[in-house]
Design a protein that fits this description.
CATH superfamily of the largest domain: NAD(P)-binding Rossmann-like Domain
Helix content: 40-55%
GO molecular function, one term: methenyltetrahydrofolate cyclohydrolase activity
Family: Belongs to the tetrahydrofolate dehydrogenase/cyclohydrolase family.
Protein name: Bifunctional protein FolD
Pathway: One-carbon metabolism; tetrahydrofolate interconversion
Low-confidence stretches: none
Shape: globular
Domain Tetrahydrofolate dehydrogenase/cyclohydrolase catalytic: 14-129
Distance between the termini: 57 Å
Structural class: alpha/beta
Strand order of the largest sheet: 1-11-8-7-5-6
Largest sheet: 6 strands, parallel
CATH class of the largest domain: Alpha Beta
Bound molecules: 5,10-Methenyltetrahydrofolate
Mean pLDDT: 96
Length: 294
């Protein structure tokens, strides 16, 4: 490639909104079939503890999305000082309710609540977030179960640009239980060679520079710069941070300096990339749960 060609080259922008819409159409069709078969629509319970503004926005989006595809949602908004026992009692009730096929407890939970105890109390068959240790174990042994929504969405975005991940070098930046670790498991399942890194990794830029696939999920705005990315790599940006601009307004920024990675083969934008896929996969998981435990 000549320098002039290099300068004008742009990466394919992976359109998460469009891919999410296509998945939603399939989900809606499956829901119609469930209603015809069982006479009852899939039900999702969304539990939110406290008033974190970002969580309020996300929960609102999830509820809207349910309505769009025909999932019956019930919303449980609890005050920030809710006792752990009260939350566990609610979860027991939702576990026993045959109209509820999926249960989602929005994280992060307030500090006085043991998140592990709460997530572990959800019936694994209704655990549409895939955070219960049984589902984590199933994912790491490749034996089915419900898969966390964001990692599932990331795989569908990769599938939109690549036929086969076999033998590709994948670098995951971020080691969280809800994103980094499950993505690493899914990539391994597809025969990619996976390196899991994080913000403390020494020589991070040099490791990322070798990658065919880069999954940025560190929650660090514009961490991944242009020179970190190998030409032709596929870059998935899971980061989403609201930052204050000079004009006093806020905007969403990813973990990747999007403007600098135009020599990549394809890259996801923020917003409009992974975020919409997370919600579409939540709906798909709810349908999966409804089909598995009627
Ligand atoms: N139990 C649990 N499950 C989750 O799945 C979960 C959670 N807790 N806690 C918080 C994170 C965050 N999350 C997002 C969902 C949608 C967008 C999304 O739709 N983003 C849009 C725009 C968002 C905006 O404009 O504010 C986009 O990227 O295009 C983002 C982030 C789910 N989470």
């Amino acid at each position: 490639m000549t320098l002039a060609e290099w300068r004008t080259k742009t990466a394919e922008r992976i359109d998460g909104r469009a891919i999410a819409r296509a998945l939603d159409a399939r989900t809606a069709a499956e829901i119609a079939a469930i209603v015809r078969r069982d006479g009852i629509a899939p039900g999702l319970a969304v539990v939110l503890v406290g008033e974190d503004p970002a969580s309020q926005v996300y929960v609102g989006r999830k509820i809207d999305a349910c309505r769009r595809v025909g999932i019956v949602s019930s919303e449980h908004r609890l005050p920030a000082d809710t006792a752990q026992d009260a939350l566990l009692t609610l979860i027991a009730r939702l576990n026993a309710d045959p109209r509820i096929h999926g249960i989602l407890v929005q994280v992060p939970l307030p500090a006085h609540i043991d998140a592990g105890a709460v997530l572990g109390a959800i019936d694994p068959a209704k655990d549409v977030d895939g955070f219960h240790p049984v589902n984590v174990g199933r994912l790491s042994t490749g034996t089915g179960g419900l898969v966390p929504c964001t990692p599932l969405g990331v795989m569908l975005l990769l599938d939109s640009v690549l036929d086969d991940l076999t033998g590709l070098d994948a670098v995951v930046i971020g080691k969280s239980n809800i994103v980094g670790k499950p993505i690493a498991m899914l990539l391994l399942e597809r025969e990619a060679t996976v390196t899991v890194t994080h913000i403390e990794t020494r020589g991070l830029a040099d490791i990322v520079r070798k990658a065919d696939l880069v999954i940025a999920a560190a929650g660090a705005p514009r961490l991944v710069r242009g020179f970190w990315i190998k030409q032709g790599a596929v870059v998935i940006d899971v980061g989403i941070t609201r930052v204050l601009q000079d004009d006093g307004r806020t905007k969403l920024v990813g973990d990747v300096a999007f403007d600098e990675v135009q020599h990549a083969r394809a890259v996801t934008p923020v917003p409009g990339g992974v975020g919409p896929m997370t919600i579409a996969c939540l709906l798909a998981n709810t349908v999966k749960a409804a089909n598995q435990n009627k």
